[in-house]
Amino acid sequence: MFSKKFVIRLLLIALVCIILFFINLLTGYENISILDLFTSQNETKNLIISYRFNKTLAVIFAGISLPVSGFLLQELFKNPLAEPSILGISSASALAVAFSVFLGGTQLIISFQWLTGWLLILSALLGAWIVSVFLIFLSQRIKEVSTFIIIGFLISSFCGSLISILQIYSQSETLKQYTFWSFGSFEGLSGIQIWVYSICVISGLFPAFLAVKELIGFLLGNEYAKVLGVNMHRLKVWVVLAVCLLTGSTTAMLGPIVFIGIIIPHFCRQIWNPSALWAQILLNIFSGIGFMLFISLIMSYTLLPVNILSSLIGIPTILFMILKTRFKNSMY
């Protein structure tokens, strides 16, 4: 199914991911040796390893979720700038989480720790689902790419305004916690929250792979897709379900991380055939993991939030894509 050349590239990226995984476990405020991962009986070092292992797993899940979500949206809308944060999906998830936090939802379950991750995720999923369905409804009536992106920007701004209102009337401690969360962070997830996050990510990958099967027939346009028997309604359901589970759970656990859904799919299309969708989704998964592990390492040394780093890389990437498209159009 895959060429030898593609398999070699995928294996090289996977090898880089493995190396970065171990580097993330070994580096931090207190460096440890690789032998400590397997032989340490020191309680302090065991706590450090456990903490870093949870953090690194969260990084890996984010590296899977955000690029796959961006890839699916871009293929469905046929728009290289479609991405959860740009289309307002991440903002809607953040708004739903804000309602949950500022209106005291987390206080209702303080005695039931295992429910904490689920409450935030269910809130984020609801916000992501509402906006995703709305965007799919609009995509049937609005064909201009620029108009569609503007609508996504307006959704993000509207959600941001509502979040600001909630922040104005919130208590100082709650505001501080939410502000820290909104910067995006891989820190502080418990083992229970990691389990909740992993269930959501794995569940989201199933409809994502089912969507790829339908998207292959969608490459040549709606009319060809109908001739090939592609069920457009089913395709949209798979995409919405996958994006909601992947983006919603990531936003709930780590904050509204931006631009990753553009950076990685764009990179993958540069190194392999864009129309080979099965190859592209695998490249997005492994490249996303490697990129987020690299970002995590930079965060360990600079203490910068993930959204600052992703913006520093993502904004020039988007600018490059826009200028490249303009240049191509001016040639014809």
Automatic annotation (TrEMBL):
It comes from the Bacteria. The chain crosses the membrane at residues 52-73, 85-110, 116-138, 145-169, 194-216, 237-264, 276-297, 304-323. Belongs to the binding-protein-dependent transport system permease family. FecCD subfamily. Keywords: Cell membrane, Membrane, Transmembrane, Transmembrane helix, Transport. One of its GO terms (molecular function) is transmembrane transporter activity. GO terms for biological process: siderophore-iron import into cell. It comes from Apibacter adventoris. InterPro entries: ABC_BtuC-like, ABC_transptr_permease_BtuC. It is a multi-pass membrane protein. CDD domains: TM_ABC_iron-siderophores_like. One of its GO terms (cellular component) is plasma membrane. Its main location: membrane. SUPFAM superfamilies: ABC transporter involved in vitamin B12 uptake, BtuC (SSF81345). This is ABC transporter permease. It is found in: Cell membrane. Gene3D superfamilies: ABC transporter involved in vitamin B12 uptake, BtuC.
